[in-house]
Amino acid sequence: MLQSYTSVPIEHFGGLVTAWPPEMLDASLLVEATNVRFTTAELCSREGLTRAFTSAAAAPITGLVNYVTLTGVETPLVFDASGALTMEAPAGSGNLAAAAPGGTMVLPDNAWMNGIAAYGRAYLAFGDGKSGTATPASFDGLHLDSVTIAAPATASVPADSATAGNIAAGVRYGMVLFQTRSGSLTAAGPIFNWSAAGAKQVTVSALPIGPALVAARVVAFTVAGGSSAGPYFFIGTSQTVNGIAETSTIVSDNTTTSATFNFDDAFLASSDDVTDQFRSILLPNQIGVCFSETTQRLLWWGDPAQPSVVQCSQPSDAGNYFGDTGFFEAAVNNGQRITSVFEFRNQIYAAKEDSLHLVTPSAGDPATWNVQQVSPVTGACGARAVAVGDGFVVLVHRSGAYQFDGGTPALLSSELLGPAPDRPGLWERINWAYEHLIWVAIDHDTKCVRIGVPLDRATVCSHVLKLSYLDGWDPSIRFSPFTARYHYFPGRRWSLDTIAASQAVRIKRPHPLGGIAGDRRSGQAQILLGSSTADGAVDFIDPAATLDNGQPIAWSLRTGSISAAETIKQQRQGMELLGMVQVRARGAGAVQVEEIADGLDPVAFMSLNLPARLEGDLRGLALAQGEAIGLRFSSAGAAANLHLLSIYAFVRPTWLVRPGR
Predict the structure, then answer these.
(1) Do the Cβ atoms of 210 and 243 come closer than 8 Å?
(2) Residue pair 268/233 in contact by the 8 Å Cβ criterion
(3) pTM metric for this prediction
(4) How far apart are the first and last CA of the chain?
(5) Mean pLDDT, contiguous 10-residue spans, the chain (661 residues)
(6) Three-state DSSP class for 149?
(7) Of 643, 436, 529, which Cα lies nearest the Cα of 78?
(8) Nearest to 188 by CA among 172, 176, 206
């Protein structure tokens, strides 16, 4: 050890703290942490980005959805600001193709797409980030269809057939419904009726022709003597029962205009009752969709005319919605719109702009479900501002980022506030006029939460706030009354990435790793980032990359203030002199090291040429003097890959009174 100097070790690094000025933070906490990442043993420059694919329109990416087929194959669906929906085909190839070439559905431009995978399809919502602006859609790998379509508009014409049959005499009513290729039925078309003579079959002509997604027409009838109110039944499969040929009343195409049926009333009445389809409605424009595994329903929200309503599909029928009871409402009169709906631990939650509500499903219709308030002040700022993890949920609200485990939401972002009203912290620098675009993604492999935010004057998500929970969720700072400063304590750690991404989605897709010695889990699944800029790029976080698509990553980190007195359990003595700095690190390239004393401009005093593996300590002489001295490490605009294990700063007190300047 240098004579009369005290060695101050920094062997475990805390996260970014903007809530207190640098002089109040010990050396293990970070005043600056840009484009870095935390591991269990090191502080590193962050992973690089590698291009996955690029949309032909070179427009900002406004939607990424993980489409999962019935066989479990996952494929990225990409939506951009030009209104183009594309998919990677085949998965992992890097080639984008139109998702539904030749389709007739027109998607809106300059819209944001949110979606989920269920029943072998992707269900997609489009809007301005706050409310829906276009018809919700579904994608089955080949076809892009409206989730719901209108009922038949014209009445069919029934008449007794000349052929002998088993239809009993009496007045009968009927109706026609469309059946889409997803298997869902529409609302009922106009009612028709005739007076059956008895012992005949019935021929129904003028069958309506539907749009391209109609796979069949379903003809439903009442029994003899029934009323126009029903009940209405249809026969799904032709069969012979007690010598009577009971014919299916499904016309399995979208072209036939006339069909003949035979049945008896006993068999008809025991068949499928579709009277409830009179209650079916067209799904309004929505901004978001969630799949509830508990209830086997799709939950949609964002109707601009009903901002507190969540539309619920019928169980296991994603294309069928009842207008009278197929919805629930959350705090209708509190002046807030629903921003996100999610399921967690078999419970459904509805987040509004400034409140959170628990929805308890029952065996009854959704309109009868119980809705109660969980938090009166914490909600979610947008449709993408919620991420459900393994045993926890992360929500982003104007007041902060929160962890939610079913109880009271716990604030995670207190470290990112500012020290004074005129000195905003990182959280206050977010442009909250565009909070509806903020997104959250959880990386369970590396125990990291990413939050895309529009920082400062940005009108799209320009940066990514990153939270490492490798050391747990507790605050990583503790105040010491002895030193009157904040010190590092194992817990959550924040950093900031300069990545302009509109969304992040983890997708299982094959990626050839070759001879890469890095984290090989990325060969099976990657976190895809859609670009917020007009380049149409979708990149993935690549643990083996040290560049962003060939460009250097401008990373930097700055420690809190170094104090020799605190290390030897004494109160701070005022001015201190920083002598030698010893660094244990590896990597590649040159790292610039600067000292910052008392808030003055950084002064470079050392350049580290990083070895590929640890080969002893790197040293430099700082000779910096001040009350609060910190160290700053940066790539200085060059390509440098840092793995920092520890810093040893040699410091000694100089005098008690700070000299005038």
Answers:
(1) no
(2) yes
(3) 0.94
(4) 32
(5) 79 94 92 96 95 93 94 92 94 90 91 96 97 97 96 97 96 98 97 97 98 97 95 97 96 97 97 97 98 97 97 97 97 94 96 97 94 96 97 97 96 95 93 98 96 97 98 91 82 98 93 63 86 96 93 96 69 74 95 93 94 89 90 93 95 66 49
(6) coil
(7) 529
(8) 176
